[in-house]
Amino acid sequence: MLSCKEVSRLVSQGLDRRLGFAERLGLRLHLMICDGCTNFKKQMEFLRKAVKQLE
Amino acid sequence: MSDFRTRVEGERPYLLRFASLQLRDRHSAEDVVQETLLAALAGEAAFAGRSNLRTWLTGILKHKIVDAIRRASREAPSADEDLMEELFDESGHWRDMPSAWADPDAALEQKEFFAKLEECLARLPARTAQAFMLREHLGFETDEICKELGVTATHCWVLLYRARMVLRLCLEQNWFGK
Question: What is the ipTM of this complex?
Answer without folding.
Answer: 0.96
